[in-house]
Amino acid sequence: MTDKPPPPKRTAAQKTDFKRELTEVVPHLRAFARGLCGRPDMADDLVQETMLKAWAAQDRFEPGTSMRAWTFVILRNAYLTDMRRNRFRGEYDEGVAERILTAPAGQEEPIHLSDMHRALLTLPPERREALLLVGAGGFSYEEAAEICGCAVGTIKSRVGRARATLNAMLAEGNIPQRSVEDATAHRAILQELDDVAAGKGITAAKP
Amino acid sequence: MTSRDESRASVSGESTANGGTTPAAGKDGPAWADGLKQLYDDVVEEPLPDAFKDLLAQLDDTDDGDTAAGRSGAGS
Q1: Is the confidence at residue A154, as pLDDT, over 90?
Q2: A128 in a domain, yes or no?
Q3: By residue range, what is the domain housing residue A190?
Q4: Most buried of the four, A51, A158, A190, A191, by CB within 10 Å?
Q5: pTM for the full model?
Q6: Residue A170: CATH number of its domain
Q7: ipTM passes above 0.85
Q8: Which of B5, B37, B44, B60 to mutate to test the interface with A (most CBs of A within 10 A)?
Q9: Which pLDDT belongs to residue B34?
């Protein structure tokens, strides 16, 4: 594996292109990070960390491929690392607490965005991430699988389970408070993180 | 394009060989599916905080080839 030549140095023009593309995806990085870790300030820290790592690794970015997918891999890896250091504790964004998602006709109760967000944060990380990528980020299953470094079938299954859980929680209004405060749940989450981290995503983007 | 398809297929591994399924993202899904999208889109639409603009500007400063890593910090 060591005989692979290092990627060529980037020209000034390529660096300019890279920076422009990186700039364009920053709002998406913020949205993805917010969904993953809940707290806006921590999410933004995570995004800044991601931007620096992406910039440092730009020689490994293949021009013409998706900057969003490439940087999402870096962001999720940084997130998983931070999670294992217990920096994020699944706290949710109070800013959305008072907002109500208007229910479509026929829906008997409005769904609160805050409930939605809290329910999302109680999902196991790999399901939350899969649902965010597909259900919010608009990635195809194939793209999401590539970002997470796992099989397409695995992503489909995670999204399906995430949807089923949210359906149950939001329909019954039965949203647990931060399950991470429970020691047993916390251990389970850490175990899951190790499993998720084992699929390392697109190898080229690994810092 | 074919080589890209191949690498994509190898990433997706043993299970499926279908090339282009698109998820039915909340088309006829529950109301929360739209809420999920909305949570994401709201952040995308937010104006970028200055911290990010500053950071992007700093990337240019550190951008002078292979010694960039060594000369961070608050010099000159």
Answers
A1: yes
A2: yes
A3: 11-207
A4: A158
A5: 0.69
A6: 1.20.140.160
A7: no
A8: B44
A9: 85
